[in-house]
Amino acid sequence: MKTVLRIMALVALTFVMISLTDCSNRRNDVDNKEVIADLNKQREKLGTDLKELQKDIDGELSQANRKVEQATGETRTQLENAIRDLRDEKEKVSQSLEELENASEDTWAEVKVETQKTAKDVRARFQKVGNEMASLFDSKED
Q1: Cα–Cα distances in Å, from 77 out to 9, 25, 30?
Q2: Which parts of the chain are coiled coil (predicted)?
Q3: Structural domain of residue 89, as residue ranges?
Q4: For residue 117, is it within any domain?
Q5: Tens digit of pLDDT for each residue in 128-142?
Q6: Whole-model pTM?
C-alpha cells in the first residue's frame, strides 16, 4: 500500500513539474516574440533614418553636379572634392544599410551601435561638406 501511495505521489509531482515547465516555456515564447518585435522596430527606424540620409546626400550631390558644370578654377576643384566626399559618405550609408538588413539577433547589438555611429559621422561630414559648398558660393557672390 505504501508503495502505491509513493508511486501516486511521484506521478502527481511529475504532473505538476510538467505543467510548470509548460507555463515557463509559453512565457519565454511571448518574451522572445516581444524582443524580436522590438528588434524589428529598431531596425526599421534605423533603416528609415539611413534612407533619409541617403536621400539628403543625393539631393546635395545633384546640386553639386549642376554647379560644378558652371564652375571654373579653384571653385571647380573644391566642388569636385566635395562631390567625391559625398559619394564616399553615401557608400558608407549603403554599407550600413546592408549590414542592418543582414543583422541577426546575435549580431544586432554590435550592428546597431556601428550603424548609429556611422549615421552620426556621415551626418557630421555631410553638414561640413554642405557648409563648405555654401561658403564657396557665398564668397563668390561677394
Answers
A1: 88, 64, 58
A2: 36-106
A3: 38-141
A4: yes
A5: 988 888 887 776 554
A6: 0.71
